[in-house]
Automatic annotation (TrEMBL):
PANTHER family listed in its UniProt record: NMRA-LIKE DOMAIN-CONTAINING PROTEIN, QUINONE OXIDOREDUCTASE 2
Gene3D superfamilies attached to this UniProt entry: NAD(P)-binding Rossmann-like Domain, UDP-galactose 4-epimerase, domain 1
Domain NAD(P)-binding: 7-180
Organism annotation: Paractinoplanes hotanensis
UniProt name for this protein: SDR family oxidoreductase
Pfam families named in the record: NAD_binding_10
Highest taxon, organism lineage: Bacteria
InterPro entries assigned: NAD(P)-bd_dom (IPR016040), NAD(P)-bd_dom_sf (IPR036291), NmrA-type_oxidoreductase (IPR052718)
Amino acid sequence: MTIVITGATGHLGRLTIQSLLAKGVPASEIVGLGRQVDKIADLGVTAKKVAYEDPEALRAAFEGADKVLFISGSEPGKRIPQHRNVVDAAKAANVGLLVYTSAPKADTTDLKLAGEHLATEQMIKESGVPSVILRNSWYTENYNVAQAIEHGMFGAAGDGRISASPRADYAEAAASVLTTEGHQGKVYELGGESFTLAEFAAEIERQSGRPVTYTDLGEEKYREMLVGVGLPEEAAAVYADADRAAAQGALFVPRDDLEALLGRPVTPLTESIKAALNG
C-alpha cells in the first residue's frame, strides 16, 4: 500500500501524515509531496519536492500509488491549471483512489471561493479516476485569536452561523478515508461546531479575560479594510465575499459527515480557542 499526500508540507498535509501514522500506517508507505520538504523531514516518511506546476514530476510521484490525497492549491486564480496537472497525472499513473479537498456546498453555493473547487470536482469526474470529495468547511485557525484580543474582530458575516473545526479534525477525517473502505464515489460535507463571529469573540473574551468585540463592517468596507492591512485586492475580495456568503448561511454545514468519519464528536470551539490561547 502506498499513500501519497500532495501539499504535504502545508499545515493540513502535515497533520494528515501525523494522523496516518497514528492510525498505524507505516512511514514507509507514505509519500509526501511539497515545495518545502524539510517541513516534514522529522516524520520519517518519503518526502519529494514536487510542485503542482510540474506535471512530469507529479506523474512520476503518483506511479504505483494506491491512494492520493489531493490537497487543493492555496492560490486563488492559479488553481485551475495546477489542479489540471494533478488530475491528469493521477489518470496517467492509474491511481487507485483520488481524495480531493474541496469547498463547502461547492455545487450549490455562490461563494466565489468555491468556483475553482467545483471546476476541479468536474475535472476529476470526467477523468474517470476513482475518487472521494471532502468538502471541508472553515478552519477555526482562520481566525487569529491573538489579533482579536489586541484589535477586536472584524468581518461581514452578520449573524450567519459558521461551521468550523481545527485543521486536525479535517486531517483525521482524510486519514480515515485513506485507511478504510467504502468511500469511493462519496461526497462528504464536513462541518464542525457552528458559531456566529460575535459568539466567537465572546468566547475569546470569556477565556482570556480581555474585552473582545466583533464589528460587522459589511462586505465592501471589510474588503477595503483587508486591502488596507496589506492583502492583495483579489484575495481581499474573496475573503470579503466569504463573509457575505456566510451571512446568508453558506458556511453552515451539519457536523454529521465529519463526526461519522472521525468516529467521535468534532472538537468544541471552547477547546480550539483554549489551544490558540495556550499556543
